[in-house]
Amino acid sequence: MARGLKRGRTRLIGMVVADILNPYSVAVLRGVEAACQQHGYTLILCNTGNDEQREKQSLAALRSYSVEGLIVNTQGRNIKSLELQHAVIPIVLIDRRIEGLDFDLVGLDNVQAGRLATAHLIAQGYDAVAFVAPPLTGVSSRAMRAEGFLAAIAEHDACHGEVLEVDLDEQSAVDARVRQFIMQWPGRRVALLASNGMVPLELALMLQRLDLRMPDDVGLLGFDELPWSPLAGLSTIEQQTYEIGFSAMTCMLARLLGDDSPPREVLLPGKLIVRGSTDAGTIRK
Question: pTM value?
Fold first, then answer.
């Protein structure tokens, strides 16, 4: 670092993630790290644990290490801290926009992915669908998936759609809210669309506790293709996570080389992977 500072270069890139326990964060990290290694940069990682104050502290710590750029999967509330950083070094956002700040953004085309998932469920004959998510406020990726979900529902008058915002730390409350949705539609085919990789496991365990089978009683589709998804027969929307991370670092390199063009968005499409949790053909006669 001392040699780098003397030359005005540290070749350090800082990365802040909202939750390292989320498999999405790890998968994106692999792409960022690969691009860093390819171009001779070292990555410093900070995990905020979805805590606003820890994010603020992480941004300050990375600044003290004289990182040359920041790649951030943000909570979206430390606007002033990010503005101060951006005045000195380039910032690339992953997954989540921040209202009022124009930074480069790389992530999933969340509206398209929400529509794709919902259209599949409707095509499979589900006519009561709930989009189950942690609170949407301040998290643009969740809000835009919900937007795509509602847009697809609006195109099918015979299908009822509802957004259920839940706190995953309150298991009994999640069970009660989702159970109420399922039970209020007797005679209809009900499906649940999980908003991110942390939600489908909770919903699958909940269905097991309620002795409900997939897809016979309830369909389940989740965002993010996880290692256990094939084992559970879970239909998913797969994100190009490695490519998202690699592309974020590619954008960063362009800025470090002097690109001063307007902020850009790189949105990659989601891919539908159909398995037994939503496939009408697998329902036992």
Answer: 0.89
